[in-house]
Amino acid sequence: MRAALLAPVALVVLLLAACGGNSDGPTVTVTIPRGAAFPQAVDSLAARGVIDHPGWFRLYARFRGLPSDLKAGIYRFHVDDDWGDVITTLKTGRGIEMRFTVLEGMMAFEIAERARVWLRIPRDSFFAAVKDTALQRELGIQPNPAGVEGYMYPTTYTVPVGIKARDLVRIMTHEFIERWPPEWDGRLAQLGMTRHEVVTLASIIEAEVRYRPDRAYVSAVYHNRLKRHMALQADPTINYAYGRRLRRVWERNLQIRSPYNTYLHPGLPPGPISQPSDSSLYAALDPAPVGFIYFVAQPDGKHVFSETYADHLAAIRRAREKRR
């Protein structure tokens, strides 16, 4: 009995699909977000006029096995497009573009993993592009093992499907160049620092600060330490030296042999340790006018700043009591 009832339904769905459209309608762009559920995708197609009868389209799509093979992307269809063409396009992932997001504070290895998962770019290809000396010259930095770390501007990009690693890295570094205001160059001269040094400092601030208003004060601490030729003693540089994010930086971790270990080596590390935000770059360029040389993080992410070591030790004790 059930099979007898389903046969007419299947026939109606197939007839609707066959009459779905002639592909002569206006062109529209439809975005299928990463992780979108099948009903969301159908709603997007219906809202843009690509399909009518969404309920029947769902049945047809299930018949064609679409839900299990849905591909995220930015697609271009015609209004009232042929259903079969729509299904084939979505199943094969023949989108015209994809969105790719680099978060503030991401390290190159994390961007590489995201590019592998989102864009199917091999990690070794991505790292080869990051270390491309031609791109480093365009940024005005000396060739170094970390490549363009720190210069892959954190934002959301719309990139072609199948983009190559070198093209992706070039887009991100060119975005950094475009976003760097010319007036910041004048500030570099006032500070007596190069852009590479400021980006390096900003990347440490980015990794260190959760509470945004603290950025200018953390920047001041590092600037004051640099002037006094003191070690920065920045925990995020230890993470970078290990090549991964440690759950916690222990005393034993501070002895790792690396030029990025700012406990062992005074001054700035050789280069940035992450992709800094604009606010961290601004903080690095414009530190607060204070004399702090110490800070300690509290459980809520805010910091307590001190000018003397005795005050710093007292702040550490208070922070530990709060954690208990």
What do these coordinates show?
With 324 residues, the protein is mostly helical. 33% of the residues are buried. The chain is built from 14 helices and six strands. The chain is 48% helix and 9% strand. The N terminus is likely disordered. The chain has a two-stranded antiparallel sheet with strand order 1-2. Strands 3-4 form a two-stranded antiparallel sheet. The longest helix is centred in the first third of the chain and has 17 residues. The chain starts with a helix and ends with a helix.
Q: In DSSP terms, counting alpha (H) and pi (I) runs of 4 or more, how many helices?
A: 14
Residue ranges: pLDDT <50 for 5 or more in a row? 1-6
Q: Strands across the major sheet, in which order?
A: 1-2
What is the percentage of strand-forming residues?
A: 5-15%
Report, as a whole number of angstroms, the end-to-end distance: 68 Å
Quaternary structure: single chain
Mean pLDDT: 88
Q: The biggest beta sheet, please? A: 2 strands, antiparallel
Total count of strands = 6
Approximate shape: elongated
Give helix and strand order, one letter per element, not per position: HEHHEHEHHHEHHHHHHEEH
Percent in helix:
40-55%
SS content category:
mainly alpha
Gyration radius, in Å: 26 Å
